User: Fold this.
Amino acid sequence: MNLKKLILLWATLPFISSCGDGLPGFPDREIQGMKPVYAALEATPIEKLESQSFIRPGKIYVYGNLLLVSDIDAGIHVFDNTDSSNPQNLYFIKVPGNTDMVVKDDHIYANSNEDLVVIELLDDSAQLASMREGFFLEASENELPPFRDVYFECVDQEKGRVVGWETTMLNSPDCYR
Assistant:
């Protein structure tokens, strides 16, 4: 390396090392940003209800003499399919945030938002057998907004699990990504 290049490198080092961490200043005013959407701390209510009308039908499963039809984001309709030309609507299993299900060995495996729920099919009913919270989330998923270069409301674990983010106006935000 020649002397001119060495002097130029030495002269620019203070400027290179003084670069900040890239965080902008935090505004002391209202600004557009993102805030977390929380799921309640208590367990998601999975319950058997009277038969319901379809809202957004999804997957269909035939299991023994039962016909199971998912209703996207709402739950699962259960029909007696003994006479397949005239299925009888038996009951509805409320599963908030449900988008998918599979059936095996008298159990329905379904999602309730990011949770995995296992529902046991009984002779004339169904009941929650187990639930695994956050099963469909990566360990740190949803702890930060999905976008970069955005101000956001810091996550407060006492409000519950973060299940999503929404754009809103924030008053003097303390977090940035």
In short: The helical segments are 3-17.
